[in-house]
Structures are given as structure tokens and as C-alpha cells.
Amino acid sequence: IDRAGARRDWPDAAREVLAALAAPAEAPQAPQFLPLGRHLPMGWRGDGLPSISMAWAERVREGLAWWWQEEFGVWMRDGIATLALPADQPEGTPMRVVLELRGPPAPLTLRLRARGRRVEAWRGVTLSPGETLRCVLQAEAGPGGIAVDLDNGDGVPLGDRFKRIVGAGLTGVMLCREDDLAARLSALERAEG
Hints:
The chain is an alpha+beta fold. 18% of the residues lie in helices and 36% in strands. It has helices at 10-22, 52-60, 181-192; strands at 40-41, 61-62, 66-69, 74-76, 80-86, 94-102, 108-115, 123-127, 132-140, 145-151, 156-157, 165-166, 169-177. Strands 1, 3, 4, 6, 9 and 13 form a 6-stranded antiparallel sheet that branches. Strands 2-5-10-7-8 form a 5-stranded antiparallel sheet. A hairpin with a 7-residue loop joins strand 11 (156-157) and strand 12 (165-166). The relative contact order is 0.21. The model has no long low-confidence stretch (mean pLDDT 90).
């Protein structure tokens, strides 16, 4: 380092850094509730930079039944994976969850249910290898929003170098009020292409 070009000496730089660490700026308050009616991609889409969408994708995945985010989305592990979708809606508000799913390398039967004001019945879907499927669940909002349980059973081998056993892939999710026709139309248009 060119000493003549240095603006301050090391002790001054150290004091400046320590002062900044001792009095950090106040962090901005993160939103507490999932934005309703907006598509939430579950993958990092190749940009690799932190974003509010990436943060939400991490936040809504509850527990250890998930693998890491990838460009397409995220693989679930075998067993039951849970999504916790916080919503600022009065308890009992009719809600709709749209899940965008991706089939693993082998056929998989997936069971799904929504939990809000009450626990809804399990529904089953079969995913073919690599298939993209959109699934709609309806439930009334509970005190904290809606939770979705996804039972992947024993899963299937992904065939990657990590020897992962996976369930379905989740590429996106959208939560809206049942009466939000614009959000529902937007989800249909995404499904069409």
C-alpha cells in the first residue's frame, strides 16, 4: 500500500471500525406478514444476490424437512415438510394457497393439507418425474395465518453427488384471500405459461 496515498493510519482506522461496531445503525424492520396475492418464487433464479423474495422463501419453510434453495426452487426431504404462511387477516377469513410443485426423478404420491382455523382433510396428488403441477388449497385463516403440510412419504433418490432423498420440489407459492379475484386470475395466467 502506498503510504503517501493512505488517508489515515491504522490506529485511526481501527478506532473508526470499533466505534461503528459498538453503535450499529438500527436495522430496518422486516415485514411480519407474507404479501398477499403475490407470487413467491422459492428458488434463487440464478442471480445469487440476497433479496426479499429469497428471505421470504427461507422464512416460510418451517423445520428441517427442506433441502437448500436452488435455481428452480427447493426440494423437500422425505417425510412431512411444512410451510408457515403468516397473514394479517382476521381469523376465519377464507384464504387460498396456490402451490407450484415439481416432480422428483421418480413418481411420487404427495399428500397435502392446509391448517388455519381448523385442520383440513389430507388430499393426494401423484407427481410424474419432472412434472410441473399447480395445486390449490383452501382454508380459513387461523390466528397466525395458514400452514401447509406436505407429506412426501419415503421420498425418492435424487441421484446427485450428495445422495439426497427428496420429495416434491416447490417452485413457488401464493397466498391470497378467497375473494381476491385479481390474484386468482394472476395465478391462472402463470399456470398457463
